Amino acid sequence: MSRLLKKEEEVDVEVLNEDQQKINRFSILVDKYFRLKEEIEKLSGRIETYKTAADELMIADGDVYFVVGQSFVQDEDAEELLEEAIGDLQKKFEGKNDEIAEVKSEMASLKSILKGKFGASIGLDFDE
């Protein structure tokens, strides 16, 4: 939410090229943050779907087939492949969470530098 600055909050500071690059970098990081959050949500959904399938596979009676591409794999192999797929997705999920932590850290650093120079004159807030 934007607001007008009070006279005492206004800062008359020249914006250098270096400052503009930091502002641009912050903007890029905000975009990356939201893309990563979206990817994490998708991965989380896929992990839950695979876990549900693994649970169903354990309680299923008779022949169960697992679709891999255009092939059907029988029960013994299906459980193994499903657990492997869950493990791979969890590694990706953890990697995306690590990336988000790095992005947030860099954003905090840039925000601190820019707020130090421009004070309330610069809006670097975003809704997570």
Detailed description of the structure:
With 128 residues, the chain is mainly α. It has one domain: Helix Hairpins. It has helices spanning 17-59, 75-118, and strands at residues 65-68, 71-74. The chain has a two-stranded antiparallel ribbon with strand order 1-2. Strand 1 and strand 2 (71-74) form a beta hairpin. Helix 1 packs antiparallel against helix 2 (75-118). It comes from Aduncisulcus paluster.
Strand order, largest beta sheet: 1-2
Taking the alpha carbons of the first and last residues, their distance comes to 14 Å
Low-confidence region ranges: none
Q: Which radius of gyration do the C-alpha atoms yield?
A: 24 Å
According to CATH, the fold-level topology is Helix Hairpins
Strand content: 5-15%
- CATH architecture classification name: Orthogonal Bundle
Compute the number of helices. Answer: 2
Structural class: mainly alpha
The helix/strand series, from N terminus to C terminus, equals: HEEH
- Work out the number of β strands: 2
Q: Quick one: overall form?
A: rod-shaped
What is the residue-averaged pLDDT?
A: 85
Q: What's the CATH class, please?
A: Mainly Alpha
Estimated helix fraction:
55-70%
- Main β-sheet, in a few words? 2 strands, antiparallel
Into how many domains do the coordinates divide? 1
Organism: Aduncisulcus paluster
Protein name: Multi-domain containing protein
Pfam families: Prefoldin_2
Family: Belongs to the prefoldin subunit beta family.
Please specify the SSE layout and strand pairing.
Layout: H1 17-59, E1 65-68, E2 71-74, H2 75-118
Antiparallel strand pairs: 1-2
